[in-house]
Each structure stands twice: as C-alpha cells, then as structure tokens.
Design brief:
Elements lengths: L1 H22 L34 H29 L14 H5 L3 H7 L2 H19 L26 H30 L14
Helix pairs in contact: 2-6
Length: about 210
C-alpha cells in the first residue's frame, strides 16, 4: 500500500511539473532594435513607418534583415541585367537551337525573359534554389545569432577587412540595394503601365 501511494505521489509530481512547464509563457519580447542590426544611415535613419521592427521576436527582426539583404542583392542584379540588356549588350552565339543572344538583346527585358526556353528558366531557378539552400544551411542560423547570409556565387573572402570597414560596406550594400529595388520596380511599372514613370516615358528600352 505504501509503495502504491509513493508511486501515485511521484506520478502526480511529474504531471504537475509538466503542466507548469507547459504553462510557462513563451517570450516574444524584442530586445534588439534597428540600431543593433546595422543598415541605419542618413538621410532617414532607421526608417520604419510601419513599425515592423517591433513585430515579433528578435528572431523575427533578424529574419526581416536577412530578407531585406537578399532582396537588395537580387534587385541590384536585376537592375544591372535590365540596363545591360536594354543597352543591347549581349553574349555571342546561341542561347538555344533557335534563339540567339543577339535576338534577345533586341527585346525588352520582360519579353526577353519570356523568350527564354523552359529548360533555361529551370536552370536559372535551380541555381537560385541552390544558393538559397546554401545560405540557409549554416551551423548557426542567422536568426540564432549566426552571421547574415553571404554571397554564394562567387564567394567573397572578407576575412582581411577590418570591422569598421565591413560595417560601412554592409550599410552601403543595403542602401544601394534599397535604391535598386525602387529602380527595378520603376522599370517594370514603365514597361507594363505606359506613362506611369514620366522619366522613362517614350524610352524604347522600357
């Protein structure tokens, strides 16, 4: 009888401990701020009109920063590619059996993308997917205190650069990327909505 009582008491203590553990609140308080993650510069320091920096936890804020960084890099590549294609600069030779790089350079960039064969688009998207997997598959994820995503193709070694210089370069990268996001959206708006961007109106490249 005493043994049964001891077992019951022990089981009750275990159940009580589990209940207490489950009842503990999950902290979503943000201890980081925009000043802690870099990218703040003049003329609009910590520009956040929607107050997204306080939405969620520290992990959410770090995820937002990584997402912005990736979008900045993609926008810079897209803007450069758009301008290069619009200028008529192209690779020599053929993209496929019936499509030459020269013929693509005569089209607007959205039309040129549409003309790329499905196999070519699949290769581009597969490369992007592989790069994304590499940046996300780190021993310590950036939302857990690890470094923010770095360039994959090509990989760049900044080990010999001072921290002060790296901070300036990171801020420049974000600022350039933010401008590039505005630029590529303007290019696409000018292409699909004629007259929506007065500065680009009548330009055959758009």
């Amino acid at each position: 009888m005493c043994v049964c009582k001891d077992i019951d008491s022990h089981l009750n203590n275990i159940q009580l401990g589990l209940l207490c553990h489950r009842c503990q609140p999950v902290s979503t308080q943000v201890s980081l701020s925009l000043d802690d993650i870099g990218g703040s510069s003049l003329p609009l320091r910590n520009f956040d009109p929607l107050n997204l920096a306080t939405f969620g936890s520290d992990e959410t804020l770090l995820w937002f920063r990584a997402a912005e960084l990736k979008h900045c890099r993609v926008a810079m590549v897209a803007t450069t590619g758009y301008l290069v294609n619009a200028a008529g600069i192209h690779f020599p030779g053929m993209l496929s059996g019936d499509i030459s790089f020269e013929s693509l350079s005569t089209m607007s960039p959205p039309d040129a993308w549409a003309a790329v064969p499905v196999a070519g688009k699949a290769q581009i998207l597969a490369t992007i997917f592989i790069a994304e997997m590499i940046t996300e598959s780190k021993n310590v994820h950036y939302t857990k205190g690890g470094p923010l995503p770095t360039m994959v193709f090509p990989a760049i070694d900044f080990s010999g650069v001072s921290e002060k210089t790296m901070e300036r370069k990171r801020t420049s990268e974000l600022n350039n990327g933010r401008l590039a996001q505005i630029a590529i959206m303007s290019f696409l708006a000018a292409h699909y909505i004629p007259g929506s961007v007065p500065a680009l109106a009548g330009n055959p490249a758009f």
